[in-house]
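INFO worker-7 received task bundle
INFO bundle size: 2
INFO processing item 0
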Amino acid sequence: MAKPEAQPLIGANVVPLMQSAAPTNYHKLNVEYDVKRAGSQAIPEHVQDQAQAIVERFNKKIARTHHCSYVARYKGKYLYLDRDDGGYVSHICRLTYTGEMNAWEFTIYKYSDGRYDPEEWFFPGSEKLDGTIEGAMKAGLEAYPP
């Protein structure tokens, strides 16, 4: 699965990093954990905090060798992992919160279709998927090299 040539992505969900200097708590959303809505539960704030810490640790590890960093976004039950590759942010994958930190459901972003595709499982790096956020980021590095 080939990633298109680097180009500025413009839109509501994608912003060049230089223009997105957000406060350190930008990843926190004002969402409520609604136990009545099974299957569409928002990710609790404490889980978002844990996820953000995992992303930041991973970014520190990969920054020296890959010159890129992951950016987390949250919407409802989804954690979106985008990646900044030298000033351009691109979609990589979407994780679905299942209630367990080590059991996230993975969906890769498919550039050929312009959407997250839950049916796509044959791509470089798929063997890295283990239900963890770090496994998803490792898979993203192979599926879409920086």
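INFO item 0 finished
INFO processing item 1
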Amino acid sequence: MYFRRCICESRYNGRNSSRAGNLNAPLEYVPRVPFLTLETVVSEHSDMMTRTAKFVLVAAVAVYCGVVVFNNVTDFNSNYAFVHHVLRMDSTLPGNHGMWRAITSPQVHMLFYLSIIGWEAIAGLLLLVGALRLFAARRAPIVAFDQAKRLAVAGLTLALLMWLFAFLTVGGEWFLMWQSQQWNGQQAAFRMFTVVGIVLLLVNQPERETQP
């Protein structure tokens, strides 16, 4: 034991003396280990929760659009009746001076109804694929996650245009749906416009750079 200890001490002293004699000798590189703080951990978890909220809400809107399309297809006549009466303007206030806008052609009614179903289906498909891309990029860098938002933003924008243009503008104002007590879908359209708009604002929130 004493002999082995002497050998170790001599090797240690020799290495130190050689370094001390040569001041220009390069020092050994010791990699720096980042100091993990509670603030860093909380920030990382907060960012992950925000990204999770984004793709979950986009997926929820996609499911909603899918259910709407399913109802319109499986209960075709009931939902077609809504478009039929709105375009005919037969439940608006009597004597109003906007009745010249009314459309009585069943073929045009069917074209309007099918276009709404197709609109909803395309928006729902974009949202579904967009949600899957957000989920796949949930741990990706900021640039990659921002690129994954594109389809989700497109689907949300398309849904917003449907509620704003097709229902509130064309149906509500042009065909005076607001005057009808029975065939008035303005409240539902405004509710969905608000919900989808909030989701779009959340998705478009910039990602925060996590500080090490």
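INFO item 1 finished
INFO post-check item 1: The CA atoms of residues 163 and 188 lie 9 Å apart.
INFO post-check item 1: Residues 1-12, 14-20, 38-43 have pLDDT under 50 and may be disordered.
INFO worker-7 idle
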